[in-house]
UniProtKB/TrEMBL annotation:
Protein name in the entry: Stearoyl-CoA 9-desaturase
Listed PANTHER family: DELTA(5) FATTY ACID DESATURASE C-RELATED (PTHR19353:SF19), FATTY ACID DESATURASE 2 (PTHR19353)
Stretches assigned to coiled coil: none
Encoding gene, per UniProt annotation: desA3_1
Gene Ontology molecular function: oxidoreductase activity, acting on paired donors, with oxidation of a pair of donors resulting in the reduction of molecular oxygen to two molecules of water
Keyword Oxidoreductase in record: yes
Entry EC no(s): 1.14.19.-
């Protein structure tokens, strides 16, 4: 007999309110067993962590810092076009690595088991305008708890984009394909005020706490701007203009890359969005089911996975946010096998396919829908 909770959830997810979505065939026992299997997989990986994993993250950090030094050195001596392009490329990759494979994953606590105070979720401050503590609350606590639940997860369209038919339409959404491009280039600034916006809406913070949070954002943004747009250009002397434009370009390109990777994992056309009612009595197995149905992977090689911070394995990351990123590629085939055994979809596609899919959703939902529907 199918679970009443799961069946209700899947009916609510139906595009027209009547056709059950993937997963409605699972019984209570099936969902419980699914949760047990995924719990066991997580524990197996965590128990196996060791020296090889520690070497991995330290090597990535060393490579990232090497790329940044090389990029800045080239830009300081830039007098030819190739030096500017090469230096900018090095700096862009360094910033992407720092934000994705290092910052995002360190601040998730994936490397806390090493007990290295320099590579720890409580001490890491990333190269981004958003203060680490505010990002950890918005991302680790809110997003990963309420993944893809409309009304709870502010990552669904980041409050400015309509990406699901159940979201109310407003004429301003007609312009969202255009302002999404601007949002991509300024993504770190959107992140900077993101958590504060959530707390303002929820009323969690007092007026004094909100002012303090805004002051923290201002200080972090000022430090970032001073570093990239004042200090390094001044140190470059006659090459100040080259350094300034390269830093600006690297930040915009990094922002656009991060935006694209995140949208590819959360908004392709085949992922599900959930109503708040799924939280009623939600079990561990049902939480896992929600992560599976509400995420998508990007297929590709090791370099793509590295540059995405292994968020190309978004399904696995949502299932196991505290598992080190270097382990997700090895976990993915086992998760895929579990999905096949339980008759569940495993959403994945090439990078071009996922980009086209999420942009298609941004364009499609810029226009009013005929009736309220999910998906």
């Amino acid at each position: 007999m199918t679970s009443t909770v799961v069946s209700r959830m899947m009916r609510l997810l139906a595009h027209d309110g009547s056709v059950p979505r993937a997963g409605a065939h699972l019984s209570d026992a099936d969902v419980k067993e699914l949760g047990n299997e995924l719990d066991a997989l997580r524990q197996e990986v965590l128990a196996d962590l060791g020296a090889a994993d520690a070497r991995y993250i330290r090597r990535v950090i060393a490579a990232q810092r090497g790329l940044e030094v090389a990029g800045r050195a080239l830009l300081f001596g830039a007098s030819r076009r190739w030096a500017w392009w090469t230096g900018t490329a090095c700096l862009t990759v360094a910033k992407a690595l720092e934000n994705m494979e290092i910052g995002h994953n360190v601040m998730h606590g994936q490397w806390d088991w090493m007990r290295d105070p320099k590579i720890h979720s409580t001490t890491w401050e990333w190269d981004n305008a958003c203060p680490a503590d505010q990002w950890k609350h918005a991302h680790n606590v809110l997003h990963h708890t309420y993944t893809n639940i409309l009304g709870k997860d502010r990552d669904i369209g980041y409050t400015i984009l309509r990406v699901n038919g159940a979201q109310p339409w407003h004429p301003v959404h007609l312009a969202q394909p255009f302002y999404n491009l601007l949002f991509a280039g300024l993504f770190e600034l959107g992140n900077a005020v993101y958590d504060l916006g959530a707390q303002l809406e929820s009323g969690e913070k007092t007026e004094e706490e909100l002012k303090q949070g805004l002051a923290d954002i201002g200080r972090k943004f000022a430090r970032q701007a001073l570093k990239d747009y004042v200090a390094f250009p001044v140190l470059a002397g006659r090459n100040a203009r080259y350094v300034l434009t390269a830093n600006l370009a690297a930040n915009i390109l990094r922002n656009a890359w991060v935006h694209t990777v995140i949208f590819c994992g959360h908004f392709p056309g085949d992922v599900d969005v959930f109503p708040e009612t799924v939280l009623d009595g939600e079990t561990r197995g049902q939480w896992y089911l929600r992560q599976l149905l509400g995420s998508a992977d990007i297929t590709g090689g090791p370099l793509l996975h590295l540059l995405t911070g292994n968020l190309s394995h978004q399904i696995e990351h949502h299932l196991f946010p505290d598992v080190p990123s270097n382990r997700l590629a090895r976990i993915a085939p086992r998760v895929q096998e579990i999905c096949a055994r339980y008759g569940l979809p495993y959403h994945s596609g090439s990078f071009p396919r996922q980009v086209a899919s999420h942009w298609g959703k941004v364009v499609r939902h810029a226009f009013p829908s005929r009736g309220k529907h999910w998906g």
